Amino acid sequence: VVFNCHPKDARTLDLAIEGIRRNGKNVRRVIVVSEKPLTENAEWFNEAFFPFNKITVALEIFNNNLNDANIALSAPGTRIGWMYQQLLKLYAPFVIPDLSSNVLVVDADTIFLNEVAFIDDDGKTLFNPGAEFHEPYFRHAARLLPGFTKLYLGYSGIAHHMLFQRPILEDLFDVIRHTHHTEPWRAFCRCVDLNECFSAFSEYEIYFNFAFARTDQVKIRFLH
Question: Residue 188: is its pLDDT beyond 90?
Fold first, then answer.
């Protein structure tokens, strides 16, 4: 289990860790990715070990224009950090050593109160969909992955947790590399429309629709 956590979100972190340890089935390690240690109740992984940071993400989005990148980083309500943490989630299974091929990413304010499984008895990954629809996410995804489409009219991939599986991520990253001839995180950033930079892309929406398009080992189920 991986939590990405900024210090401003740390108030609920220990409750979220306790909730997934107590109620999550087949949980082995619990890891917090952050810029500094925020809890003694889980392993810490320094986000500095990832191949990008907020500055390099901003530079990619703004085509290496340092002035525009700095303005975006310091602007009130900037979303650079929000995009950065999405990339941390996608890269965690490749950067953090000795992880399972099944990596559950959970928001630091998501507290599981009842027993929950994320893989069913047949080995299928379980997704708890939302209902949000934000069109700019799909415009970005279509630039990133030509032919990308929303598979389920009434379902969104955006939720407060998602089980990432290494084979599906490897497939996704391979398609992005083949399409854009660069590292996936750079392609994510370069496909951002600067007119929609406030809410540019969704890693969950991309992974959810990509997974359901590429394999039958996935399944929708709703949590209370």
Answer: yes
